[in-house]
Structures are given as C-alpha cells and as structure tokens.
Design brief:
By secondary structure, the protein is an alpha+beta fold. It has helices at residues 47-53, 59-62, 68-72, 75-90, 95-98, 126-136; strands at residues 22-27, 30-40, 43-46, 102-104, 109-111, 119-122, 153-156, 167-169, 212-214. Strand 1 and strand 2 (30-40) form a beta hairpin.
Length: 215
C-alpha cells in the first residue's frame, strides 16, 4: 500500500488547516540550526525553506531563528503569512515542493520560540493569589481590596521561561551553621544530603540536588 503523504490528513485531525500553530525546531542533522516551523498533522513544515522556495515577500521573517521578527511585523503580515502557509499546505500545485520540507514530529526538537527580554507576571488566579496572600500576610486579609479590580503584577525573570520537558536541577540553597557565627554568614550546602523530608508523616526525602526535575 502506498505511503500516505504528510499533506493528506484524516478528517477531524486537530492540527489541520483550521489550526496551524507556529514554533521553532531543529533536526538531528542540524541540531544548532533553529528554524520556524508550522505543525500540520503529525509533521512540521519548515516554513523558512517553504518561503524561500516560493519567493515569499515574508521569507525574511519566516527564515529567522525565532518568531520575534514575525510577531513584530504586525497583524496584516500575520494574516498574509497564514494565508500563504495555508495555500502551501492545501494547494496541490505546491505538493512537490512542500512534501520534502515536512519533518515527522517525533524527529524534531522544539525550542523556546521567542527571545524574551522581559515580562510582567500577574496574580490572575484568585486561588493562587489567596494562598500566596495567606503566606505573606498570615494575620491580615489574604487578598488586597483592589485585587478583583486590578490583579497585582510583578517583574518576572525572563530566564525562567523554558520549553516543557526541560530538565531542571534543583537549587542546593544555603544553610546557617549551628552555633550561629557572630556575623551570621551563610554557607554553601554541605556535600552530604541535608534535604528535609517531604512531609512530617513521611520518611521519603526530596530528590538529590544533582537530579534534574522535569517541568
């Protein structure tokens, strides 16, 4: 039986013409060359290569290694690019050009699609804000009076934005030796594990500080 083309999707596929998410990926053959891709079915279209082959006026944005240039171009360009991508994927006239540019999803690695310079985080979840408020203000109101009108925002660390599945090494922290020295200097953690139990009713301990945790 002939192999089905990656452009021929079964009816009802969640990543069909109605849903074309963008991302940034690399392939095993070029692990350091990041490219903009568009998911279609269980494949990823190399959007930069497709734009170059079609002499697209948006080849520069789609040939970048992040989505920043495309996002900075504005809504008219976003709409034009989406129309182009939809045409490449669905018009039989482009099939011979586009099929070789489709990569099976399991063979690619996904990366953070944006360069994040800065961002503001907000306590947008009432339950999260309430729990945090109880910790910070145990003897006061958990939620400040203005919260439901204007959730509190704060500066976030751009370096903490990572792709799901990225291994995270648990910080080792510091400790204050006993007896407390005159100047209260904290020290790096001891070489032996000093992690506290996960719960007072359990003897199970936190993972080793050298063991990566998955987000």
């Amino acid at each position: 039986m002939p192999q089905r083309s990656p452009l021929d999707l079964p009816e009802g596929d969640p990543f069909g013409p109605h849903n074309l998410p963008y991302g940034v990926f690399t392939t095993p053959h070029a692990p350091h060359l990041r490219k903009i891709g568009v998911r279609y079915g269980n494949h990823v279209l190399d959007a930069g290569a497709a734009a170059a082959a079609a002499a697209s006026p948006h080849a520069e944005q789609l040939g970048a290694d992040t989505l920043n240039p495309l996002m900075a171009a504005g809504r008219p360009v976003w709409q034009a690019v989406r129309a182009e991508v939809l045409d490449w994927l669905t018009d039989p006239a482009h099939r011979s050009t586009i099929e070789p540019l489709m990569h099976p999803l399991p063979t690619v690695a996904l990366h953070l699609p944006f360069e994040v310079a800065d961002y503001a985080d907000f306590y947008a979840s009432e339950h999260h804000a309430t729990n945090t408020g109880r910790i910070f203000r145990p003897d006061g109101e958990a939620l400040s009076p203005n919260w439901k009108h204007m959730p509190i925002g704060y500066h976030g660390r751009a370096g903490t934005l990572l792709v799901s599945g990225t291994p995270i090494v648990r910080p080792q922290g510091q400790h204050l030796p006993r007896p407390i020295p005159p100047h209260h200097h904290t020290l790096p953690p001891p070489l032996r594990s000093s992690a506290p139990p996960c719960a007072s009713t359990s003897k199970r301990r936190w993972p080793s500080s050298s063991a990566p945790l998955l987000l």
